[in-house]
Amino acid sequence: MPDYFFKYSTDIPNSLYTPNFSPAHIAWLSTALLLIFVTLLIYRRWTQRVKDRFKKAAVIFIIIAEISLWVWEGVLGHYDIRYSLPLQLCNISVFIEFCAVFIKKSALVKEFAYALSMPSALAALITPGWYAPFFTFQYLEPALAHTLLVLIPVLIVWGDGFRPDYRRLPKVCGLLIVCIAAAVAANLHLGSNYMFLAYVPRDTTLVIFETWFGNPGYELPEFILLLLIWAILYLPWMLSDRRHNSNH
Question: What's the predicted TM-score (pTM) here?
Fold first, then answer.
């Protein structure tokens, strides 16, 4: 397996790939969730200065990891503009979370990170579409990057005290629409599948939606699922605000 570490997936036998929900995938997912939880507990004990340094180091690391992936693909001759532009939601989230950490008055991007970046990165960890053996750069780089993409909003909300507010969601949707428009334009001109708007990637939860509703019908339950996720993410905060207001 070490001989394949820096190989591209097409140069590796399919029999060595790590399927979703395999023992290796479940072990990594469990480890990632545990690391996020433990890091949050440790983070809450730090001073604000140390917290800020840690978050900055984490988002800089994600940026470097993202760039290193492009360089690696280029060196191997596999960089393809149809697949490698930063137009997937998680790729966009890399830069959103960078802004959330480095821009002090950044309520909108922090809200975006909580409402969209965190759940999309978690979904990618649960059903990754990386199609490579576990102990390869092509698998470990996105696995670690997506773990950090979940961690940063967790630290901002439950470590720093940023309070999510559903009233910011219209602006979050506006920013999302801009991202979708860029992805659609790229898909039309390049034949790509950014934001998974052209077709459903295999081994993901979207396959179920496509089976039930067809293509592009799968996008409707995807939108409904997003609303359900937002209800789960925001209802506790809304109830907390209601209790707080009733006590005063």
Answer: 0.92
Question: pLDDT band at 45, cuts 50/70/90?
Answer: very high
**DSSP assignments along the chain, one per residue:** -GGGTTS-GGGS-GGGS--TTSHHHHHHHHHHHHHHHHHHHHHTTS-HHHHHHHHHHHHHHHHHHHHHHHHHHHHHT---HHHHSS-SHHHHHHHHHHHHHH-SS-HHHHHHIIIIIHHHHHHHHHS----S-SSSHHHHHHHHHHHHHHHHHHIIIIIT-----GGGHHHHHHHHHHHHHHHHHHHHHH---GGG-SSPPTTSTHHHHHHHH-TTTTHHHHHHHHHHHHHHHHHHHHHHHHHHHHT-
- The CA dihedral of 31, 34, 36, 38, to the nearest 10 degrees, is -130
Exposed, middle or buried, 213 (CB in 10 Å: 0-12/13-18/19+)?
Answer: middle
**CB-side neighbour CA atoms (13 Å) of 54:** 19
Residue range 154-196, pLDDT digits in tens: 999 999 999 999 999 999 999 999 999 999 999 999 999 999 8
Q: What confidence tens digit (pLDDT) does each residue in 7-22 have?
A: 998 889 988 999 989 9
203 confidence band (pLDDT: 50, 70, 90): low
